[in-house]
Amino acid sequence: MSLRSLLHIGFDLTLIAMILAAVRRNTGYVFAYEHYGISTYLYKYLGWGEWCYGSLVKFVKFSGKFRKQLPQDEFIQDTTNRIEELDRTQHKAHKKRHSKH
Q1: Measured at the alpha carbon of residue 69, what is the angle toward residues 50 and 63, in degrees to the nearest 5?
Q2: Residues 20 and 46 sit within 8 Å (Cβ to Cβ)
Q3: Distance between alpha carbon 27 and the CA centroid of its chain, in Å?
Q4: Is the Cβ–Cβ distance between 17 and 49 less than 8 Å?
Q5: Does the CA dihedral 81-83-84-89 come out positive or negative?
Q6: What secondary structure does DSSP assign to 75-87, as a single string?
Q7: Which among 50, 41, 42, 14 has a CA at the least distance from the CA of 31?
Q8: 3, 10, 56, 82 - which has most CB atoms within 10 Å?
Q9: Which residues contact 30 (CB under 8 A, 6 or more apart)?
Q10: For residue 45, how many other CB atoms are within 10 A of its CB?
Q11: Could you give the C-alpha distances from 7 to 11, 36, 51, in angstroms and in order?
């Protein structure tokens, strides 16, 4: 295996660890590393992802190339709230229809 291949695999593994760190920080869900025989190594791997993700966030915060999101920057709309809102509206309408009969 060449050095280039090892670097590529290491970079990919680091990105995956960073994604897992972002999931933990945004949702509170943690990869269940204790279910595996190599839990000590997985714990260290997840710690590496946390450190890399934290470093990236620090870089972004102090970089002049990034800014806070503005309301008009809706790259991906949060559809969860809209779906819950529609469910409540439909539930109320359904109750009204059935209460009249």
Answers
A1: 60
A2: yes
A3: 7
A4: yes
A5: positive
A6: SS--HHHHHHHHH
A7: 42
A8: 56
A9: 24, 46
A10: 18
A11: 6, 25, 19
Residue/partner pairs of 15-24 with CB below 8 Å, 24 or more apart: 16/49, 17/45, 17/46, 17/48, 17/49, 17/50, 17/52, 18/49, 18/52, 18/53, 18/56, 19/49, 20/46, 20/49, 21/46, 21/49, 21/50, 21/52, 21/53, 21/54, 22/53, 24/50
Gap between the Cα atoms of 1 and 88, Å rounded:
57
Amino acid in the structure at residue 56: L
7-63 pLDDT, tens digit each: 999 999 999 999 999 999 999 999 999 888 999 999 999 999 999 999 999 999 999
pTM of this structure: 0.67
